[in-house]
Write a structure and sequence with these properties.
The chain is mainly α. The chain has 17 helices and no strands. Among the domains are: about 70 residues, Tetratricopeptide repeat domain (Serine Threonine Protein Phosphatase 5, Tetratricopeptide repeat, Alpha Horseshoe); about 60 residues, Tetratricopeptide repeat domain (Serine Threonine Protein Phosphatase 5, Tetratricopeptide repeat, Alpha Horseshoe); about 60 residues, no CATH class.
């Protein structure tokens, strides 16, 4: 049966519309699939593959903003900073919204990665003016000052970041480290104590705490902290050497001192490095015969 022309047109129009909807849906789905694959490679730090997949995702759906953000991150990961900057500037507008906030942060990061720290700071100062309650702006200024070796200003901005969010671990860590590096051990105690509570599974935090306590001659707590660091990172030979220092100086404990020296050497600590350790020459003299036996055992 042949349909009348008028009726045929009524059938064809819905079919064309349906076909168009199916095509649009398929492109959106393909965009999401390429985007998700890109995320997997980004997680693996395969930035070349990730950037290719994000570009493919965007070829199907140019409105996928998160794909653009991740493409910028992938471009930065493969050190293609100029392309990342072009994409950021293409997408950025002066409207105050999450999209532009993220782009501004990425542009500041781009200058940081290019080691243009002053330029990065200029941008983050502007960011702070727009978002004065966001800890990230202050923290990034601190990082730039740290790389410019302006340690006092770095410290001041880490404190400002911490004041905006006392639970922000990176600020807390850098504040503590500033006091430690400047031999201000007592001043570091409130911050390192808080850091240990908030980042209790980080071996580096327990190691720093142990070093601070050692300098304050609180040997029992120093011992507990270094043993916790060793428990969390059994591969570290440096922690073993530090434990040996604590047992020797704090407790005159020959057995455990030698135990940790032997562990350090088993884990690859070089004998030539031992002489560089503070107090180690004294420690070696203290247990000369036993130390020589360990060296023979490990290297002969």
């Amino acid at each position: 049966m042949v349909l009348p022309l008028q009726l045929l047109s009524k059938v064809l129009i819905p079919l064309i519309l349906l076909s168009s909807c199916i095509s649009m849906k398929s492109e959106n789905e393909l965009s999401k699939e390429y985007y998700n694959l890109g995320n997997e490679f980004l997680e693996l730090k395969n930035f070349d593959k990730a950037s290719n997949l994000y570009e493919k995702s965007l070829s199907y759906d140019k409105s996928n903003f998160q794909a653009k953000i991740n493409l910028i991150i992938a471009l930065q990961g493969k050190k293609n900073y100029d392309s990342a900057e072009l994409l950021i500037k293409k997408e950025y507008t002066t409207s105050l919204n999450t999209k532009n906030k993220n782009l501004l942060l990425l542009l500041g990061k781009n200058f940081f990665l290019k080691k243009e720290f002053e330029k990065s700071n200029d941008l983050f100062f502007n960011y702070i003016n727009i978002y004065p309650d966001d800890k990230i702006g202050y923290f990034n200024v601190g990082l730039n000052y740290l790389n410019l070796r302006d340690f006092q200003n770095a410290h001041d901005y880490f404190l400002k970041s911490y004041s905006k969010d006392p639970n922000f671990i990176p600020s807390l860590y850098n504040i503590t480290n500033y006091y430690f590096e400047n031999n201000l051990y007592s001043e570091s105690i409130p911050y390192i104590t808080e850091l240990v509570l908030k980042d209790s599974n980080n071996d580096k935090v327990h190691f720093m705490y142990s070093k601070i306590l050692y300098e304050l001659n609180e040997m029992q707590k120093a011992k507990e902290s270094i043993l916790k660091a060793i428990e969390l990172n059994k591969e570290s030979n440096v922690y073993e050497i530090y434990a040996a220092r604590i047992y020797a100086k704090g407790f005159n404990d020959k057995k455990n001192t030698l135990f940790h020296i032997e562990n350090a050497l088993k884990k690859g600590y070089k004998t030539s490095d031992l002489s560089e350790i503070k107090d180690f020459s004294t420690l070696r003299e203290q247990f000369r015969d036993e130390y020589n036996e360990i060296i023979k055992k490990e290297f002969n």
